[in-house]
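Below is one such record:
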Amino acid sequence: MLLTSRTFGEAVLCLCAKAKEFIKVGRTCRGDLDNRMDILHEYVKLRSEFGRQCLFSDRQELLVDVPPNPKLASQFVIKETRDLGVQGCWEMSEHEVNTKRFEYDNQGINHVEGGWPKDINHLEMEQTIRFRKKVEKDEIYMNSVMVLGTVIGQCVGQNNAVDIYQEYFRDEDMLDEVQEAPSVKVANVYRDPHHVKRHVTCLSWQPNGGNHLAAAYCYLQTDKAHLGMSQESYIWDIENPTQPYVTLHSTSQLICLDYNPDDMHSIFSGCVNGQIALWDARNGKSPAARTPLEGCHTDPVYKIVWLPSPTGTEAFSASTDGQILWWDSRQLSQPTDRLVLDLSRKENLETALGAISLAYDQSTPDTFLAGTEQGAVVYCDRAGKSAGEKIVCTYDGHHGPVYAIQRSPFFSQNFLTVGDWGARIWSQDVKETAVMWTRHQADYLTDGCWSPVRPSVFFTVKMDGVLDIWDILFKQNDPTLSVKVRDEALSSINVHQGGSRLACGSQEGIATLIEIKSGLSSPQHNEQELLGEMLERETKREKVLRAQRGGDDGADGEAGPKELVLRSEHDFHNVMESEQRRKQWESRQRHYP
C-alpha cells in the first residue's frame, strides 16, 4: 500500500470529525452533571505550553517507492536452520616422527703420563729411551708412519692452499645493509643578537667532539659600515640557540678564528685592524693576549691556523698585506717568522699577493698552501733558507679570489680550492691544471671544505644561499645533494670532526646547524681505495696531456710524449679492473637519487 500526503490528510480530517462528536457528547454529559454538582476549580493552560503547532497540508508527493526486484531472489539461497557446536579451546593435533636413534655410552680412561706401558717408569730416562728404540724398529710402526705421512702431507698442502681467514661473504653483507638516503636536516639557528646584522665570516668547532661553536662576525663592506656597529663575536652552545655561551669583546671586529686542537678553551683570532688576539673561553669576555698594532699585519687578517707543534702554542696567519706571519701564543709582542708572498722572490710588499686562505699538512708542518686574492695558490716551504727557496711554486686555476683551500684528510698530495664559480681538486705533482673540477655554477662560491669521514665527499656554499654536497666517486658533474639553507648569501662553512654535523654562516648574521644523515656521514666500503685509484688515474692523464702539449718533455724521467702515451695505454688494462670494481660499488649505492 502506498501512503501519500493526500490520503494522510483525509485520515486526519476524519479523526478530527470523530473528535468533535466526542466533545459534543462530553458537553452533553457535563450538562447533566452540572445539575447534580458544582465546579470547584478550573485548570487553565496556555497554548504555548502545548508545544509546536501541527500544520497539515494536502500535497500530491510520493516519498518513496521501492518496487520488488524478482531478479534478486535468484541470488539468495534458502537454508534450513542448523545447529553448530563450538568449543572453548584451541584445536590441536599430535604428530609423531621417527628418527634414527644414536646410541652412546660412557667409558672411562685411565690416563698415564705419556701413554707408557705399566712396566715402564716414565720418570726414568733410560727406560723411556730403551722402549722408544724398541718401538722404532718395529715393522708395524714403520709401515704406519709411511701410510700416515702421505695423508699428513696432503692435509698440509690443503692448509697452504686455502686461506682459512678469508671472508667469503663480505660483499654480500654490504648488500644486505639498509642504507639511508642522502639527506640533511636543519637542527638549530643562531642569530646575531645585535640589531645591525653582520656577516658570519668564520666558524670553528670545539675540538675533541665539543658542543661549542665559535663564530666571527664582521661587516666587510667598510664603505657601508655603520657607526654603531657591534665589535662582538660569540661562542654558541649548540643546545641553546637563544643566547650566546660566551661573548668575545674586541676593539676591532673579528674576521677569522680557530680553536686550538690541543686545548678546548684557547682560540686564536684575526681582526680587521690586523691584530692577532688570543682568547680563553673560561676567563671572561676580554682577550687573554693581543699583538701590538706596530708589530702585526697592516691589513685585515683573513685566516689564522694553529700548527701541530710540540708545545701546542704556535700558529700562523694570512692577510691581504701580502705577509704570512708565525706566532707563539706565549709571546705575542712580535711574530716569530715572516714570509712575503712576492713571486719575484724580492720580498717586496708592493708586489706581494694578498693571502686570504691557508692550508697545511700535519705530516710536514713546514710546508703550506696559501690562496690569494689574485686566484693563484702559492706552495711554500718554511724550511727554505732564502726567500727564493721558501716560495716553491704556484697553481693558477681560478679567475677570482681563492676563498677556501684545504688538503684532503685522506690523501695529503691532493687539495681542494674554492673560488669564482667552481671548486677544483689539485694534485701536488701537477702544477699547470687541476686534476678534477666542478662545472661552472650560476652563482659565486664563497667557501668549502672536505668531509672528515668520507674521502670522496666535500661541501660548498654559494651566494644564492644553497649548500651543495659533492660525492665525486658517484657523480662529478652535479652535486649529490643541494639544499636551500637561507634566502641570503652563505659566507662560511665548517664541518664537525664527527662528520654528522656542519654549520653554515650567512651574510645576515645567522649561523645554521645542519645534521647530515648517515648516507653522507658514514664511511662506505672500499671508498678510500677507489678514490685513490681515481685521483691517480686523473693525475696520470693530466701528465700525459701536458707532455702532448710540449709543456714538460722530461716529466717522467727521460720519457718523451710518445713513450708516455704508450705507457698510458699499457696502464689502461690495469685501470679497467679498478673501474669495474668502482662501477659495482656505485651500483650498490641505491640510496642515491
Summary: Residues 531-587 form one domain. The radius of gyration is 46 Å. Helices lie at 5-34, 125-136, 139-161, 170-176, 387-390, 518-521, 527-548, 561-587. Residues 5-34 form the longest helix (30 residues).
